[in-house]
Write a structure and sequence with these properties.
Helices cover 9% and strands 28% of the residues. By secondary structure, the chain is mainly β. It has one domain: Tumour Suppressor Smad4 (Sandwich).
Length: 170
């Protein structure tokens, strides 16, 4: 007999051992709250960043997408078109939309629900920290909250202790 967990938010059926809904990112484990971000120590952040490496064979995304985000520990890259502004975070219930980053992975790394955003305008990609608990870093430089930072293809982004490599064409 197969047992499933039904998401209280979207009613999606999830694996029995799931902590978060694979459809909407809502917390499925009772007794825990996903309303706060777990603080991650600076030592833990630096240790995890030093161990991370770009995925083998990482390169520019296919023509259908203009931006590829390779999340360390996540199987598939996030592919994004130029017309989109994307929110990076652990997602969760409410109107933050489905999580692009695996919610369990993001939660363990101290990623806020709405941690950062990436936008495209006038031929330039920018990233902005949205006031996250554990900060957004680009190439080991911490970003100021709400201040856009220009991204270059090959940059390393850290959301708390979660490492992401960004690649784009152009």
């Amino acid at each position: 007999m197969i047992t499933v967990k039904i998401c209280p938010t979207c009613k999606h059926e999830n694996a029995e051992d799931a902590a978060y809904c694979v459809h909407c990112g809502a917390l499925l484990v009772s007794g825990r709250s996903d309303t706060t971000t777990r603080p991650v120590s600076e030592t833990e952040i630096l240790k995890l960043a030093a161990e991370a490496a770009p995925p083998p064979g990482a390169k520019a995304p296919p023509a259908a997408a203009s931006l590829a985000l390779f999340v360390v520990g996540q199987e598939h890259p996030i592919l994004v078109g130029q017309e989109q502004t994307i929110m990076l975070g652990r997602g969760g219930s409410g109107d933050s939309g489905p999580a692009l980053i695996d919610p369990q992975l993001a939660s363990r790394a101290g990623v806020s629900r709405n941690h950062a955003s990436i936008s495209y305008a006038d031929g330039v990609y920018t990233i902005k920290d949205l006031g996250s608990t554990n900060g957004t870093w680009v190439n080991n430089k911490r970003l100021l909250a709400q201040m856009p930072y220009v991204l270059q293809s090959g940059d390393q982004i850290r959301l708390g202790a979660l490492v992401i490599y960004v690649y784009f064409q152009g």
